[in-house]
Write a structure and sequence with these properties.
The chain has 207 residues and is mainly β. The chain is built from no helices and 13 strands.
Length: 207
């Protein structure tokens, strides 16, 4: 079997925050950055730069980084590279910053027998405008789950409640306000009512 020899061309380690200049095709450079994420200013990211032989500078997702130049360079003289983020997520648990995009895939969450199964939604009460319809959040002021329909936040509270009591309920079982369409079964009657939005109305009265 033939033996192949692989050479690392122009391998270099840069000072924090620097980018490589004159990185030839196939060349490597490693560097660290901090302060990129404003919410975690001390977080240090590790990057691998790979020379492409062109003059474009992009990250691993193709985002143009060509305005980033090394001292003494110009946008005309620069040599291109691709910048890869080497930070990984530990299988024992970790935190990530920035957007996580799953393309052509499904997100699946599983929990062991000894764990607690829960999906924690982002919580806020500001009038922030998301970019994608279908985004969800937990509204901390109203304690409701909301969905962005493309123009406004809409509360997910369309279910109807069925109540059984001898006295007419004034609130739902959990203490929330009654919603039009909620039903009450008066076991003392017996009779069935629905909440009109302002009063209990007997189904018998509609017959």
């Amino acid at each position: 079997m033939a033996t192949q020899v692989v050479n690392l061309l122009h391998y270099r380690s840069l000072n924090p925050g620097q980018v490589p200049a004159n990185l030839e095709f196939g060349g490597f450079a490693v560097n660290t950055y901090s302060g990129i994420n404003p919410t975690l200013p001390t977080l240090r990211e590790v990057y691998l730069f790979v020379g492409t032989g062109g003059n474009e500078r992009v990250d691993e997702q193709g985002v143009d980084l060509s305005p980033i130049i090394a001292p003494g360079e110009t946008l005309v003289s620069q040599k291109g590279w691709i910048r890869y983020n080497l930070r990984s997520v530990k299988n024992s648990g970790d935190s990530m910053t920035g957007d996580l995009v799953l393309t052509g895939a499904r997100a699946r969450f599983e929990v062991g027998a000894t764990g607690t199964a829960e999906l924690i939604l982002p919580d806020e009460n500001t009038a922030v405008t998301p970019t994608i319809a279908g985004s969800i959040r937990y509204q901390t002021t109203t304690s409701k789950i909301q969905v962005w329909n493309g123009t406004a936040w809409v509360e997910v509270d369309n279910y109807k409640e069925f109540l059984q009591a001898t006295l007419s309920p004034s609130v739902r079982a959990n203490g929330d306000a009654l919603v039009a369409g909620d039903q009450w079964y008066n076991s003392a009657g017996p009779s069935l009512y629905f909440w009109s939005g302002s009063a209990w109305v007997s189904f018998a009265s509609l017959i």
